[in-house]
Write a structure and sequence with these properties.
91 residues, Rossmann fold, four-stranded parallel beta sheet, alpha/beta, 42% helix
Length: 91
């Protein structure tokens, strides 16, 4: 499974989020990898899920992308709950 952590520039916020998402994936035994990317590149990149702030996810949404909105990028609990409801909830 491919997940993209997205922020405006693809550097700080998305990098930190991708690290935390990868930790959560491992703890939840979900086979996948999260990489960070800027918004412009993410619009053309194919992934199973896109994760980021609600504002960024709103700009990314095109009706086909599966997006996950996160308020607190460093909250392991929020990230795990979001991944559980979006990914494990669909199985």
């Amino acid at each position: 499974m491919k997940i993209l952590a997205v922020c405006g520039n693809g550097l700080g916020t998305s990098f930190i989020l991708s690290i935390n998402v990868n930790k959560a994936l491992k703890e939840l035994n979900i086979d996948g990898e999260c990489k960070n990317m800027d918004l412009a590149s993410a619009k053309t990149e194919v992934a199973d899920y896109y994760i980021g702030t609600p504002e960024i996810m709103e700009q990314l949404q095109d009706g086909n992308k599966k997006t996950i909105s996160i308020i607190n990028m460093v909250s392991a609990d929020e990230i795990q709950k979001a991944l559980t409801s979006h990914i494990l909830g669909e199985k």
